[in-house]
Inverse folding.
């Protein structure tokens, strides 16, 4: 699989949109990941308000305990090569750590929001906790990592996490600490939302989800992982739409804040080259050029949604982007 063009969302039939929007856990297991990603981008056309997204959260909640990982365990041990396992873990492990970190770092951002924004962010925190439990179960029951606590298992998967993942979440922790001191600072809020909602969730997460879930669906393996991670992708659609709504409003009310968007993206893209190892995508059906195009496309679509143009130097950096960030 090479680069799948995503510069424009493919038309999504109304019935598919309705299925993604309303499916329970059994239903979401039957949905193609590409349709879920299109669902994310359809929402970017209207950027719903926080209370509408909160109502959607109430409708779309799911229970990790409803997933049975026994078939996934058999698939992992019997149907997946060692090269596929290493690529899978190298690309997906960032999620295992990211979900847990956001439970902490999102709180300072919530403190400076409106009452409506705070209501929605409480739902996002619950989503992140659910996703943390999902990955904890997957790594324990399928991959076979041992540990009595969530942190024990996180320690076991840390070896697979890339440096660029660490950089993006290190910046998030830094911005979260700054927001603790001044949670209503508009520049800090734009920088946090750019790093987290636009980049980590809107670019890194959606790219990882497309690569790993496309691999699972094509191979017909890891059904519980596919179901839970597909449901996670749908959850992330609310988070991305919420964050981009905040950014869209902020930069249109004060165009000077566009500089903060650019500065954060510039920092993240510079971190992109600071790696000591490479991720091999071929075992999962992707070449490096395909991943590069996927990342660039996801970034351009999110920037377009908030009504911001990339500066010439950022356009040049995107063109030279190395896809090591798929580790996050």
């Amino acid at each position: 699989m090479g680069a799948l063009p995503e510069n424009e969302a493919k038309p999504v039939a109304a019935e598919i949109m309705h299925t993604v929007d309303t499916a329970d856990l059994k239903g979401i297991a039957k949905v193609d990941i590409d349709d879920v990603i299109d669902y994310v981008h359809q929402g970017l056309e209207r950027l719903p308000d926080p209370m509408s997204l909160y109502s959607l959260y109430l409708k779309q909640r799911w229970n990790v305990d409803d997933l049975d990982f026994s078939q996934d365990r058999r698939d992992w041990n019997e149907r997946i090569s060692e090269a596929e396992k290493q690529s899978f873990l190298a690309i997906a492990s960032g999620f295992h750590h990211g979900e847990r970190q956001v439970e902490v770092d999102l709180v300072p951002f919530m403190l400076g929001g409106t009452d409506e924004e705070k209501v929605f962010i409480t739902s996002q925190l619950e989503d992140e906790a659910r996703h943390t439990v999902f990955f904890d179960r997957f790594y324990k029951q399928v991959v076979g990592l041992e540990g009595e606590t969530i942190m024990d298992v996180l320690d076991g998967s840390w070896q697979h996490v890339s440096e660029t993942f660490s950089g993006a979440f290190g910046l998030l922790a830094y911005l979260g600490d700054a927001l603790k001191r001044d949670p209503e600072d508009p520049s800090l809020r734009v920088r946090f939302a750019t790093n987290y909602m636009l980049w980590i969730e809107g670019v890194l997460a959606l790219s990882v989800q497309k690569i790993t879930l496309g691999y699972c669906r094509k191979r017909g393996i890891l059904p519980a992982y596919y179901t839970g991670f597909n449901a996670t992708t749908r959850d992330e659609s609310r988070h991305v739409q919420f964050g981009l709504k905040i950014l869209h409003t902020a930069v249109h009310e004060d165009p000077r804040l566009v500089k903060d968007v650019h500065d954060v993206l510039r920092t993240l893209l510079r971190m992109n080259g600071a790696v000591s190892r490479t991720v091999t995508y071929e075992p999962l059906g992707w070449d490096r050029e395909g991943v590069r195009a996927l990342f660039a496309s996801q970034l351009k679509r999110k920037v377009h949604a908030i009504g911001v143009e990339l500066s010439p130097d950022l356009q040049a950096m995107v063109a030279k982007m190395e896809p090591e960030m798929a580790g996050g």
Q: What stands out?
A: The two ends are 20 Å apart (CA to CA). Residues 14-327 form a domain with the Ribonucleotide Reductase, subunit A fold (CATH 1.10.620.20).
